[in-house]
Amino acid sequence: MTTSDPLAPFQWLHGGDCLLGEIFTVAFFRGLDPSEVVRRFSRGEDHGQESGFDELMEQATEFSIKNRGGSGGGTVGVLQVGEWSVAIEPIGWMATLHDVLAELSRDCEVLAITRHDYAEDSLAYAIDGTIVTGYTPLDCPHLRHGSEPDRLNGFMRELGMTLDMRDDEHDRDDEYDWDESDWDTDYSAAMPRAFALAAKLTQVRFIPEVLDRAMLVGPVAYR
Fold first, then answer.
1. Are the CB atoms for 110 and 122 separated by under 8 Å?
2. Which of 74, 106, 178, 187 has the most CB within a 10 Å radius?
């Protein structure tokens, strides 16, 4: 009997051909509808306008160019998938910043993932203003943080993540035996594993077809 690769549906989120580009954040909200999610990103100023993915990307690109990239994409698109609202920040990273995530997660539950090829990837999970757990997807799943850092360990083990601190002395002994292919494997699996973990928690498979749905698009007030 063969088993399917749990990372396969999420491989599109890694590499240069990703539809969302090299910098983006996807956040999953339980307990809020898309209009309320947009309102929170805009700090109460906007409830969103119905739009599509192409328009979302255009607005984010225009904002980034105008602001020379330092403030992200300034735009979020939110759609409903099952019990969760899925928020997409092209060229953005606000939802995984801890102070912002604490605000966004008031009276609800949020899991957010950032891919940032020029800085640091991040995954953070918050409930009602508290960061429960989080880690850096590329190289530090064993360095988890939060009020309950082991909260998602069962799901993480199912995905083959290393959860225990590596033996530094052993690493030094093996310094000259290190194989670059090991790093390549970790790098290519980092984002797929993060989104596979999100799917286990939320039951939402963030696959390309999700981007075909209508969404509410609004501004991101955080900078």
1. no
2. 74
Dump the DSSP string for 105-159.
TTTSEEEEEEEETTS--EEEEEETTEEEEEEETTTEEEEEESSSTTTTHHHHHHT
Distance CA 124, CA 197 (A): 11
Strands (E), the chain: 23-30, 49-51, 75-81, 84-90, 109-116, 122-127, 130-136, 140-145, 215-219
- Do the beta carbons of residue 95 and residue 112 sit within 8 Å? yes
Which strand (E) or helix (H) includes residue 186? helix 180-202
Each residue's pLDDT tens digit, 147-205 = 999 999 999 999 988 888 654 444 444 444 445 444 455 778 999 999 999 999 999 99
Query: What's the pTM?
Result: 0.91
Residue owning tokens 């957010």? 112
Rounded Cα–Cα distance for residues 4 and 198 (Å): 17
Side chain identity at residue 151, one-letter code: R
What SS3 state is found at 46?
coil
* Sign of the four-CA dihedral 29, 145, 140, 136: positive
Pairing verdict, β 109-116 and 84-90: unpaired
Burial of 21 (0-12, 13-18, 19+ CB in 10 A): middle
As a whole number of Å, the end-to-end CA separation of the chain is 50
Summarize pLDDT for 46-68 with one digit per residue, the tens.
999 999 999 999 999 999 999 98
- Cβ(112)–Cβ(25) under 8 Å? yes
The first and second tokens of residue 92, run together, are 């953005």
